[in-house]
Amino acid sequence: MELHHLRYFEAVARHGHVTQAARELHIAQPSLSKQIQVLEAELGVALFNRVGRRIELTDAGELLLPYARRILRVVADAREALHERANLEHGRVSIGAPPTVGTHLLPQALADFNQRYRNIELELHEAGGSSLVQLLAEGAVDLAVVPLPVAGVEVAELFTEELVVAVRPEHPLASQMPVVARDLEAEGFVLFPVGYELRDRTLQLCRNAGFEPRIVLDGAEMDTVLRLAAVGLGIAVVPRLALEGVEALVGVSIQDARLNRTLGLIWHPERHLSPAATALHGFLLERLRPSAA
Prior knowledge:
This protein has 293 residues and is of the alpha/beta class. It has helices spanning 3-15, 18-25, 29-43, 59-86, 99-104, 106-116, 129-138, 172-175, 197-208, 222-230, 275-288; strands at 48-51, 54-57, 91-97, 120-126, 143-147, 154-167, 188-191, 214-218, 236-239, 250-252, 260-267.
């Protein structure tokens, strides 16, 4: 049973006349009659009684009609939903980002996106870079902002940001010029969880300078890391962006190390982006790349 058979059947049942139904459907009357016969043969029942120049539904036709109308209505609703989706009248998109980006860069961008596309539902996942790449592979997020490089994904580079050592304003490192990596050897470090690129960069910084960091606390998220550094528990390597508006901390640059990271927008190479995800993709490139400033 094909969908067009049901459409033809419903039109004939509604008009009670093949000629009028054929006119509505823009097909020849003999072709319509043939298609009704094909449907009847497939179902093994007569659907219409021919009474003079009119046709009437048989008991089998009466039984089929509400099902046919329900199916045609569902198909029409599906087409309308897809049309609305394509025209961004409805949709849903999920994005992942590190906490710093989620806190400092995405709020205004997502608010502006929502103003432009009022009926698109947004979902945000905050996690470290490796966790976000895994979420992308699993299909849990459509897009993610992560530190580069990342293999096996489509990438659009966004911007490069400086990493600094967060210390209290009265800390000796805050007034020392210049500061080199070896100056950090006696300090206690607050580390991010496993899977966070900032954790790896902290360990790399220390080991490249010839020492293992003294870890005073392991596994804290960004907000907690900043609070712990602010009360003097230890120092932490963070993006300078994370210190915006934080008066209790200052960022110390390390002169003999290239402490920066490049962030990019990634998406799965084998999954088509939905219209909503495509819209957010373009919007974030427009807003987060330096040329947009």
